[in-house]
Design a protein that fits this description.
The protein is an alpha/beta fold and 471 residues long. The protein has 18 helices and 13 strands. The strands form 2 sheets. It has a 7-stranded mixed beta sheet with strand order 1-3-2-4-5-6-7, with helices on both faces.
Length: 471
């Protein structure tokens, strides 16, 4: 799937300079995301668009590129492989970090290596900094606690469920998409939480008269047939083929499958004889208009885009960890039905496509999005900065430097040990670094047997450049 403002190209996005609107106190805002899938970057891109539209200047960074020795890219690759080949291992990591309340010592050590880089990246006139990724929140929170970062730090929680890793001490403001995750964040000790609604590209909206029929024609979908849009994130992970077969066998809908960047999955569906199969597409808004219900397994940004489009959402056969946690939270909020039993799939889909459940979910889903932009997350971020006055800005501490101003490296043995310990288990809840101690060796030994070290895969997942209109 694709969204306007998808993952960055791995380098700092260029600051978007805009003309100041009359009467606007223009701010400079830094946004730190991470290309762990597409959801964190998608939220960062939309926040950037809204802030620049309001007259502010925005700089964006990918935390994975602010970590040393490509540790971030290695972690992203391992996270991907865990979901693809050993979901049971990811579930163990997620559960353990949830039980102990956060990341382990190795992951914390790795995140500390990004602190100086983050401070050097922020321009001196930055007025606020925003994280859309838990690891970045922990870096910013530590800097705030130490007094090295003197501007407000805000976390925008992209998930509907809140794992303890989302709540970092030192963060000034946590923004939530709904009261359910807001309550979870407060229970985990978040100092200040504000419900501001989701951030989705404005192309995701309910179709107007004639647009639904045009969208069906565009994708070759027949009038009078009910279609279920099946999505599995940007990586196309989970039992997607099984779910497509179950939707087909239900007799109530025809599956329309989006495989993200998983090209192998596209080929497998072609061999299975599934007619409507797509890889990464830039036309998700029209595809959502063309379908009658969406079936998803992770509860990420695509679910929120469907809700913004007035498309009922069902969670089914979710991936472990954050997938099932998000399904439970979405169901609790009444915006997406969690189908726990395959036997109930036909009746649930039928009710969502033409019954009372579908009408209820369209109404409750659209109510997530504030009609007044002044109540949205971009306004909350600017408000946090203005409420704090005009602070001095980032305060990097003096550090030893090597050649050409590059920070002097720590002893090689220490860096190698930290890198090995952290990246090998940095794959956990909501896509951030976790180090779980006791479970890690068992998981890694199992992965060594399941995943060939030279499998022909790229060193890290493909990364999509920032669209021209957002540069």
């Amino acid at each position: 799937m694709s969204h306007v403002g998808g993952p960055t190209d791995g380098r700092a996005a260029k600051a978007t300079l805009v003309h100041q609107r009359p009467g606007t106190d223009r701010l400079r805002v830094g946004i730190i995301s991470a290309s762990m899938g597409a959801g964190h970057d998608g939220a960062a891109a939309e926040l950037s668009r809204r802030l620049t539209a309001d007259g502010h200047t925005v700089d964006r960074w990918d935390l994975l590129d602010l970590l040393p020795a490509r540790a971030g890219r290695a972690a992203s690759s391992l996270y991907h492989r865990l979901l693809e080949h050993a979901p049971w291992a990811y579930q163990r990591i997620y559960t353990r970090t949830e039980r102990v309340g956060g990341a382990g010592p190795a992951a914390r050590a790795l995140l500390r290596t990004a602190q100086d880089r983050v401070l050097r990246a922020l321009p001196a006139d930055t007025g606020a900094v925003v994280s859309t990724y838990p690891g970045a929140s922990h870096v910013l929170g530590r800097l705030r606690q130490a007094g090295r970062l003197t501007i407000p730090a805000v976390t925008y929680m992209t998930d509907f469920s809140v794992h303890p890793l989302w709540v970092a001490r030192g963060i000034d403001l946590h923004l939530a998409v709904h009261e359910v995750p807001a309550a979870q964040a407060r229970a985990l000790g978040a100092a200040k939480v504000q419900v501001c609604g989701p951030v989705t590209d404005p192309r995701f909206r309910p179709p107007q008269a004639g647009e639904r029929a045009a969208a069906r024609e565009r994708f070759g979908l027949l009038p009078g047939v009910r279609y279920a849009l099946l999505v599995a994130g940007s990586w196309g992970v989970g039992p997607v083929r099984r779910v497509a077969a179950e939707i087909s066998a239900s007799g109530v809908a025809v599956p329309v499958v989006v495989c993200g960047r998983n090209r192998a999955l596209v080929r497998q569906f072609a061999a299975d004889g599934i007619e409507h199969v797509h890889g990464w597409t830039d036309d998700m808004p029209h595809l959502m208009w063309a379908c009658d219900v969406m079936v998803q397994n992770a509860g990420g940004l695509t679910s929120l885009e469907a809700l913004a489009s007035g498309l009922p959402v069902a969670s089914f056969r979710c991936i472990p960890g954050h997938g099932t946690a998000n399904a439970a939270a979405l169901d609790e909020a009444g915006v997406a039905l969690w189908i726990r039993d395959a036997a109930g799939l036909p009746a649930a889909l039928d009710d969502l496509m033409g019954g009372g459940a579908g009408l209820w979910q369209r109404t409750s889903g659209l109510s997530l999005f504030p009609a007044d932009p002044a109540l949205g997350p971009a306004a909350a971020i600017a408000g946090a900065r203005l409420a704090a006055g005009r602070p001095a800005g980032p305060q990097p501490e003096p550090a030893a430097h090597g050649k050409a101003g590059v920070p002097a490296r720590r002893p090689a043995v220490r860096l190698a040990a930290t890198f090995a310990a952290a990246t090998t288990v940095w794959a956990g809840a909501v896509g951030t670094a976790v180090a779980t101690g006791h479970d890690a060796p068992v998981i890694l030994r199992s992965l060594e047997h399941r995943i060939a070290p030279d499998s022909g895969r790229p060193a890290h997942p493909a990364v999509v450049p920032v669209p021209e209109e957002l540069r």
